[in-house]
Amino acid sequence: MEETPTLPFEIKLAAGASLVENTLHDLLAPRTLEGELHRPERLLMAMRHGVLNGGKRLRPFLVLETAALFETNKQSAALRVAAALECVHCYSLVHDDLPAMDDDDLRRGQPTVHRAFDEAAAILAGDSLLTFAFDIISASETDLTAEAKLTLVNRLARASGMGGMAGGQALDLAAEGSSLKEEEILLLQSMKTGALIRFACEAGSLVGGAQPLETERLAEFGSAIGLAFQLADDLLDLTSNSETMGKATGKDAAAGKATLASLHGIEWTRRQLNGLVAQAEELLEPFGERAETLREAARFVANRQK
Q: Recorded GO terms, molecular function (predicted)?
């Protein structure tokens, strides 16, 4: 019997992105859900602009793939949790781009929300995307137990709040013009970037019904590739350009922000990325061949060019 050819990782990622995009289109349709009073048209348009603008959808892809490790019938629930996570991620991008934060004009090659609309619309769109994420997870349409939903809501709140992504952004803003030590940079990055990637892998395992030790192992996998993602991002900020990236580059250096790549150099950063991929692959060993796509994801994160 001939073996089924393996799809390239980029095609798998694009297929996952398409599923998530369709789910987000449906969730952010111009209609009122049960229990809602009204969806203001301009606010909804700003939210859609901030979410439905392409992107790799890596975080929701990790939710889908970690859930699939356990061969459950929870794909619909996994898709909704993945979409909720992407709402949180996109809210953070909308707010990060504001003049009071990073003051960016481009995101994924398109005008940022505050440029396409205005600052007030961008703030409200971000607020609405964040709260909508918890609506999606807790809704009756998400086919999970009440206990599972409560755990997901709690862990997403912590990953996105003051002890996670938002706290990391606060540390990042405070770091402008400062000479941070390596451990301070690692803490900042584990919060700002790593927390949501770790949650993605944790969430998928929870949807899939994993055992606690399996969930912890996948969360650690998420931490490893979260750091790899940030190191690769710092490397691209030093070596790439805005046309390739679809956003401004060189901003860390211009703002006087220290990164591990700027502290140790390009070759050191590449060696660290190789080490993190090896660590990620080791964490996946108990899952055998089922985790091959996640291994590919780790390599993709470390070697991406944009």
A: transferase activity
Query: Which pairs with CB-CB distance under 8 Å and at least 24 residues apart come from 120-124?
Result: 121/42, 121/43, 121/46, 122/46, 122/50, 122/94, 122/95, 122/97, 122/98, 123/95, 123/98, 124/43, 124/46
60's tokens:
């929701």
Q: For 149-199, write each residue's pLDDT tens digit.
A: 999 999 999 999 999 999 999 999 888 877 888 999 999 999 999 999 999
- pTM of the full structure: 0.92
d(CA 186, CA 126): 26
3-state secondary structure of 99: coil
Q: What is the pLDDT of residue 243?
A: 60
Cα–Cα distance for residue pair 137/83, rounded to 1 Å:
9
User: Which run of H or E residues covers position 107?
Assistant: strand 106-107
Neighbours of 220 (CB within 10 A): 15
Residue whose structure tokens are 């609506």: 135
User: 1-11 pLDDT, tens per residue?
Assistant: 344 457 899 99
First to last CA, the chain: 39
CA 84, CA 188: separation in Å to the nearest integer?
24
| Structural contact between residues 109 and 30, judged by C-beta atoms closer than 8 angstroms | no
Is the pLDDT higher at 178 or at 276?
276
Q: What is the pLDDT of residues 238-274, one digit of tens each?
A: 886 556 545 455 555 555 567 899 888 999 999 999 9
Find tokens 């970037």 and name the residue.
Answer: 193
Q: Which CATH class is domain 9-303?
A: mainly alpha
DSSP state of 256: T
Among residues 196, 252, 250, 245, the alpha carbon closest in space to that of 225 is found at: 196
**CA-based nearest residue to 191, from 221, 218, 166:** 166
Query: If you ran DSSP here, which 8-state letter would residue 289 be given?
Result: G
